[in-house]
Design a protein that fits this description.
Elements lengths: L1 H22 L2 E15 L10 E15 L3 E12 L5 E15 L3 E8 L19 H4 L12 E9 L4 E7 L15 E3 L7 E3 L19 E10 L2 E11 L5 E3 L4 E3 L2 E13 L2 E12 L14 E13 L2 E12 L2 H7 L10 E13 L4 E10 L4 E11 L4 E12 L14 E9 L1
Length: 422
């Protein structure tokens, strides 16, 4: 298996180098070598190991530019001995970008797509996320999962139009019970936090058909200092939030999202507002308790520097379930009911000292109605231009095990990360 992977890698590198030699363009190589080691703080966590991370990662990155084209590749080699030692290779990005005149460009290949205004809150950013990496201390870049896509952008005097088409649905990477535990409502005792191998979670992906592709669009333009955008998406829920009682397995129901956002400078800082309508296409009447009801979600946030090298922001998100009465009427006996309105508060605080070589940051999510929270804490020291040392923690808590963050309350962990960049 390893030989096949190395063969694939060599072929890929050759393909990525073709444009470099063929076009005589400017080419840059970079990357990093990183060790990440983390351990859980809860001895009762039902996962196979007390570790949350034990990996060595090598990333190779190549950029090539010409007058009308760009080629980009990013490959990760990972030796992971969290539980059973394994060697993995992932093509994080590998795309070609072509420009036609000054008004149209195309990006084709494996890429990471992001838009929206929220800080770690995603409404109209419907592209795949990697929460397993997010919860275990990997770099922030790994929160965004790659996907194969075609992106087209059109720049006009009216505004900018962008369309992203993914022929194959790409889900979020979520805890499955191996490295992180989760709440499962169908245990014999009526629901509990579980882990692998007994409760290894595997969801059914949509069929690999043309109609199962994902299509997203955005229109944006400036009105003065305000960046205004409209969004649309047709695809599936990114998390396996549907449940098939016949097979006792999770799946990804169909979903449309329509929304808008505004981001602008104000009061010496930056403010943003974003909203979206989540149209649950497999439960348009709201009477199937195994599929999420449609909902409306709104977000408002503000960030500014409040001291010397000290920056803070705050956000408030509100989600209101549509057809809540039907949801309550059809809920199975004994299953915990969600509230009609969900509230979420977040704050991020970042302090830089010692000529910005030492940083302290904290990001806290808190839901006052679900009474659960998630805190991310990180201290990083830039030892040299090439070497960075990081110490962090992920802390979860919740009144109930079935809430958004309560489901992960046994996954508290700390980690150490050493990165050498070149």
């Amino acid at each position: 298996m390893l030989t096949k992977k190395l063969t694939y890698l060599m072929a890929l590198i050759i393909v990525l180098l073709i444009p470099v030699t063929g076009l005589g363009s400017e080419t840059n190589f970079s990357g990093f070598l990183q060790g990440l080691y983390g351990g859980g703080l809860d001895k009762d966590n039902p996962t196979p190991s007390d570790l949350t991370a034990s990996e060595t990662r090598l990333q190779l990155r190549m950029e090539s530019f010409s007058d009308n084209a760009e080629f980009f590749g990013r490959i990760d080699f990972v030796y992971d001995d969290y539980y059973q030692p394994s060697t993995n290779i992932e093509l994080r990005e590998g795309f070609a970008k072509f420009r036609i005149g000054s008004f149209l460009d195309f990006k084709i290949g494996r890429q990471i797509v992001t838009w929206g205004t929220g800080d770690l809150i995603f409404i109209n950013d419907v592209f795949a996320k990697d929460y397993l990496s997010f919860f275990t201390g990997r770099d922030d870049q790994y929160l965004k999962a790659p996907q194969n896509a075609l992106r087209m952008a059109l720049y006009t005097g009216v505004g900018d139009f962008a369309v992203v088409y993914s022929p194959r649905f790409t889900p979020n990477r979520t805890p499955t019970g191996e490295r992180l535990s989760y709440y499962y409502p169908m245990t014999p005792d009526g629901g509990a936090i579980v882990g692998a191998p007994e409760y290894l979670f595997e969801a059914n992906l949509p069929a690999a058909k043309f109609k199962s592709g994902e299509l997203a669009g955005r229109f944006s333009r400036y009105f003065g200092n305000a960046d205004v955008a409209l969004y649309g998406y047709r695809g599936f829920y990114k998390n396996p939030v549907g449940f098939d009682m016949a097979t006792m397995s999770g799946y990804y129901p169909r979903l449309n999202v329509y929304g808008a956002s505004v981001r602008m400078p104000i009061f010496g800082g930056i403010a943003w507002v974003e909203g979206g309508h989540f149209d649950s296409r497999d439960d348009t009447d709201g009477n199937n308790p195994m599929i999420p009801n449609s909902k409306i979600s709104g977000l408002i946030g503000f960030e500014r520097q409040i001291g010397s090298n000290l920056t803070a922001n705050i956000q408030y998100q509100n989600e209101k379930m549509i057809d809540f009465d039907k949801y309550v009427e059809t809920l199975p006996v004994g299953m915990a009911a969600k509230e009609e309105t969900y509230h979420l508060l977040t704050t991020r605080i970042t302090q830089l000292i010692m000529m910005e070589t030492l940083s302290f940051s904290a990001f806290v999510f808190y839901s006052p109605n679900e009474e659960d929270l998630y805190g991310r804490f990180l201290t990083s020291y830039k030892y040299s231009d090439a070497v960075t040392l990081s110490l962090g923690a992920n802390i979860f808590d919740g009144q109930d095990e079935y809430t958004s963050f309560g489901t992960f309350q046994k996954n508290d962990n700390i980690y150490l990360k050493v990165t050498y960049g070149y």
